């Protein structure tokens, strides 16, 4: 049995007390070669050792005896929206709807309270109803988990008409074509792909400012139960 250990620092949080789902998923996917699908079974804990264990063709993330997440190789192909320019993404981001409560305002990916150079500050917005959400991103600290985080939260904004909402990431499958260059101007898009009760399907994509495909993902978001 092959087992390694990782610790997710508080900096990489999504909600205040657990990891950003995309970052945690990318951290696990980095142990596989090529595109991967990651299912989050529990909120990934922060600041404690977690075990990464190979099981068959996949890997799992364990917190003690608890299964936190599992990753398997996957095919990831989507019909993508057309790229938008850096300037269009900046305009879309000006329509960003901040999250009302503090739950995600410190998120590594989309938290507006994070300083430049600390969080990614990807703040998606849409110009017109029905448009994909879009945001600019000046790529920094490039790694596979960071790119997974970059294409995470735009899916949550895409499935909600009122900003991010309380949805939580349940599953994410991503394909990385190439990591951006340090300081490269990029554009993140997110769009709704369908609904099945509390399960909301989204797609996200990362383009260079010139329209080159860098990464894409399909996601399942879980809406909270009514009254919770």
Kindly describe this structure.
The chain is mostly beta strands and 228 residues long. The chain folds into two domains: 3-73, Thiol Ester Dehydrase, Chain A; 86-222, Thiol Ester Dehydrase, Chain A. 13% of the residues lie in helices and 34% in strands. It contains four helices and ten strands. Strands 1-3-4-5-2-7-10-9-8-6 form a ten-stranded antiparallel β-sheet. It starts with a strand and ends in a 6-residue tail after the last strand.
Topology:
Elements: E1 3-7, H1 21-29, E2 36-40, E3 49-55, E4 58-63, E5 66-73, H2 86-93, E6 133-138, H3 144-150, H4 154-158, E7 168-176, E8 185-196, E9 199-208, E10 213-222
Antiparallel strand pairs: 1-3, 2-5, 2-7, 3-4, 4-5, 6-8, 7-10, 8-9, 9-10
Summarize the structure.
The chain is mainly beta and 228 residues long. 13% of the residues lie in helices and 34% in strands.
User: Count the strands?
Assistant: 10
Q: What is the fold-level CATH name, i.e. the topology of the largest domain? A: Thiol Ester Dehydrase, Chain A
Average the pLDDT over all residues and give the rounded result.
91
CATH class term of the largest domain: Alpha Beta
For the biggest β-sheet, the strand order reads 1-3-4-5-2-7-10-9-8-6
CATH architecture of the largest domain: Roll
Helices and strands, in N-to-C order? Answer: EHEEEEHEHHEEEE
Helical content class: 10-25%
User: How many H/I helices?
Assistant: 4
The CATH superfamily name of the largest domain is: Hotdog Thioesterase
